[in-house]
Every structure is written in C-alpha cells, then in structure tokens.
Specification:
The chain is an alpha/beta fold. The chain has helices spanning 32-44, 58-69, 109-120, 140-148, 156-159, 184-194, 212-219, 257-269, 288-295, 334-339, 344-353, 373-383, 414-426, 446-454, and strands at residues 14-17, 22-24, 47-55, 73-80, 83-90, 103-104, 125-129, 152-155, 161-167, 176-178, 199-205, 225-229, 235-242, 250-252, 273-281, 299-304, 317-323, 331-332, 357-361, 387-391, 394-398, 407-409, 430-434. The protein starts with 13 loop residues before the first strand and ends with a helix. The structure holds shikimate-3-phosphate.
Length: 455
Amino acid sequence: MRAQSGAPTQEGAAVVRSAAHLRGSPRLPGDKSISHRALLLALLAEGESAILDAGDGEDVRTTAAVVARLGAEVERIADRVGRVDYRVVSPGRERVAEPDGILDCRNSGTTLRMTAGIVASRPVFAVLDGDASLRRRPVARIARPLTEMGATIAARAMGTLPPVAVTGRAPLRPIDHPTTVPSAQVKSAIILAGLGADGTTTVRETVATRDHTERMLRARGVAVRSEAWGPDGAGAVVSVDGPAAVAPARERVPSDPSAAAFWLVAGAAHPDAELVLRAVGTNPTRRAIIDVLRRMGASIDEIPAGGDGADGGGEPVSDLVVRSSELHGIDVTPREVAAAIDEVPVLCLAAALASGTTHIDGVGELRHKESDRVAGIATGLAAMGARVAVDGDLMTIEGGRRLAGAVTESLDDHRLAMTFAIAGLIAGGETAILGAGCASISYPGFFDEIERVRA
Ligand code: S3P
C-alpha cells in the first residue's frame, strides 16, 4: 500500500510521517454531542431555531437528515471546514411526523438512541436502522425503559440489536429508572421520552454522564432537575415533569473537546510542540481528559472565555494551550474512563508515550462503541511497538518505548483512525492508517489539520 502523506486516498488509506515540530491552531469541529442535541431539540420546539457552528461530521449530518424526515425544515445556511450553521423550523413535539420509511442512523449511536426516545413518546411507528457497525451496538438499554414507559419496541437478536421498530404512545407512563451502564445516550433517550409522559420521569446514574441534554433543555424553558446521587455522590439523579413544551433557541456550539483531545495528546507527547485550541467546551462532565492528561504531567493552559462563551446553551468554553511535556504513567479509574469515554483511545497513546506504566480500569463499555476499541487500540499500538496488555476490563500500558511507524487499521472507527494518525506524527518513519476516511464521521478536514500543524 502506498499513499501520499496527508488526506486519505479514495480507498481511505492515509500515511502520516513523523513531524519535526508541531505548531499552530488546528481548526476544530463543533461539539458532536451538543450538535446532535441542538438538532433534536429544534425538532421538538415549535418555531424557528438557529444552531451556529455545529459540527459538520457525518454523524451530525445523519441527525439533520433524521430530523427532516420527522417533519422539520432543516436548512444549512452557511458552512466552513468542520462547521455548519443550521436554521430549523419545526411544527413542534406534538406534531412529530411518522416517517414514511426506515430512518437510517448510519454510524451514529447517539442519533439512533435519542431519536428512539422521541418517537416513543408520539403515536407514530418508526424503524431505526444503521450501518454494519451500528447494527452490532446494544439497544436493550433503551428498549427496556421505553417499553416500561408504554412504547412497543421490537429489535433484532431478541430485542438487543438494530434495526429497532418503535410504536410510540402518547402520553407515556413516567418511570424511575436506574441505568445499568453509565450512558448519556440512555439518560437522554429517557428524558426526551419523559417530555411526553404524564408525570415525573427520573433517571438514576451511579456515575454521572455528560449533562448536555439537561443544560440545553433548561436553556429551552424545560425545568429539568439534577442532583448528585449515590453512596459517594459521583452519580446523578435527573428528573423532568411531563408533558413539557420545548422553546426554540439560538445556540452557538463550542469546539468539540473529544476532537481537541487528539491535539492535547499530540502537543503534550511531541518533543517540540505548542498548539492552541480555540473555544473548546469545558463542561465539567466532558473535561476529564484535560484533567487526566494534566495528572500525567501534560502542560495545558486554560483561558476561560469571558461571559457565556457558548452563547445560548449554558456551556463553559476555554482556549487551551498545550506544550511539549514529560508525561508519566498513572492509574486511571473506572469513573475517569466513564467521564472520558470517547478519549480513551488517544489516552492509551499518551500512556504508550509516557514514562512508566499506566493502568486504565473499567474499559468494558469501549467494546460497544463504533468498533471494539479495546481490541482495536491494543492491536494498532502493539504494531507500532507499544506494550499493551488487556485483562478483562483492565488495560495495562508500559510506556517509555519509542514507537515506530507501522500499518494500522481503523476498523472503520473514526477515533481509532485519528489516534493512529496522531501516533504517526510522533513515531519514527511512516505510519499507514487503513480505512482513515472514517475520520470525517466526527472530524471533517482532520488530515488537512495534520499537515497544517507540522508545516
Ligand atoms: C454520547 C454519549 C456516549 C459517547 C458518544 C456520545 C452522547 O455514549 O460515547 O460518543 O452524545 O450522549 P454512551 O451514552 O453510549 O456512553
């Protein structure tokens, strides 16, 4: 296989060469989690919503298409690399339309699970399906609570895998649901369904997950309550009183901290680097990667934006400056893994480049992402010379070895593709990433930024 350094070829392979230095300010996409929610909440709000600087990856485009199929007018009013402004005009939650065919959620678990919560609360029939990767991802975790609320849900493999057929009901019965795995998608699906329930719907999480849905609903006039919960206070109990109307909003989406994480690791681990990341979302439920990397010795300066940086959504925003650092191994707890779930692949790279040993405990959920990320990252990093051991839900990475360019495989998983590309900037020689084109799922233009920061 031979490809030029830089953007993936048509077959989707990319080659990244070792960089002498890294400088500049990589362009970042708008936050994927917030962009999905802004579109879905715009569907629920009667009237006109504006979403500025949304992420323009394939996953968010998928949600935009689903929202249009459910009856809203969705217009792209401007776009830039990785970003798009949307205008959405919707007849509102009580007039969500029955789709005339299958809703294709493609690669996006967030689209499928959150949309299921919305259609469950309307008297419509909808089938949600996706690509080969999505068809391997669990849905019982949403099917059970939505069934308990009164919707009728059928899914392949004894109700565990997509496609999922939802026959909704209005109003739903409110429930009090303890989640079995920490999942913001599950919490959000239940809370969105709860908007159409007759009474108070409650979700209890033993480990609190990202709270964008709660914040964004509050910014749209819905009184969502949230309190610390559980024996050690690390959980959250979230409730909403239905039926509730969602008001339209105008929201600017911050830069995606999960995308910024790639550059935080690149900047901290490369011996000659200084990178500036602008207007990154630093919501306490999303910023764990910043704090974990700092615990490993990363030099990351944080300059909070004055006022309401995220403008409309109640999300804190900062500029981040990362510089070459002496990283050392640490023990990462299951709670930190839950809080940095999408950043664990690139955290494994940081561990491989750090001195000493890193233990990452509680990685089980990573097996249910766009790929089996535990296997994918272990195989790719091992091919580059890292020592990675997996024992159940514990990963042990012995750092301190110089990585060498190798052929790696993305397994069609955007976060693996980008992790191996960052590894390629630091490893000796050339790193090939097979199936690199999937980076555009969350980060369009990522490989152009790789070339810009090394220039
Ligand atoms: C997301 C929640 C997480 C995360 C995903 C986005 C969200 O998934 O991995 O990329 O936007 O709510 P889970 O809820 O399955 O943990």
